[in-house]
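Supplementary Methods, section 5.1.

A reviewer requested that the exact input to the structure prediction be made available. We therefore reproduce it here, unchanged from the version used in the analyses.
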Amino acid sequence: MKKFLAILILIFTLPTPSQADDIRDFQIEGMSIGDSLLDYFSEEEEIKENVGFVYEDKKFTVSYYNKSSEVYDEVAIEYKSKDKTYKIHGVQGVIFFENNIEGCYKKQDEVEKEISSMFTETKKKNWGILTNPGRAEGSTYKVISFNFNNGSRATIECYHYSDVPQDDHLKIATSSKELTKYIDYITAQERKTNN
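The structure derived from this sequence is encoded token-by-token as follows.
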């Protein structure tokens, strides 16, 4: 059975051994890795009109949705740019904590405990508070990652931007094995460029 994120806690049913630690069981706004975005939105009126970012090599596209949600202030979905089926490779839910990074950290801890209890076979890592090299001095992000045995990943991230403090936010994200490898590659390339 699929799991849903609630406002303060994750509500879930325990997976059976055959489906244990499968990222497809993790839903954000009802959407999971492997679903088709066409099951949730129309292609012309909603998907194409909400494209917010296309990676430089145009391999993946991100569409953003700010529709009314009880949980998230914004939802982003990542899919292959040339895939006409719009298979979902990544889903992100964002909750804003205006000028309240401590509130973000508290929520992050709550979500971490719930995900840890749901996915016991994943490799969890708390990366601590890191400097955000692409932003003004004093900007930080704190990441907790859950790496699934099949190569997919879930992350809980708190962002603080010293130049725009009202934009503190929590991002809960899932990514397929293919998107995870792609993001890791892009990140490694950016680090080489910045060093």
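Residues 36 and 87 are 4 Å apart (CA to CA). These observations are discussed further in the main text.
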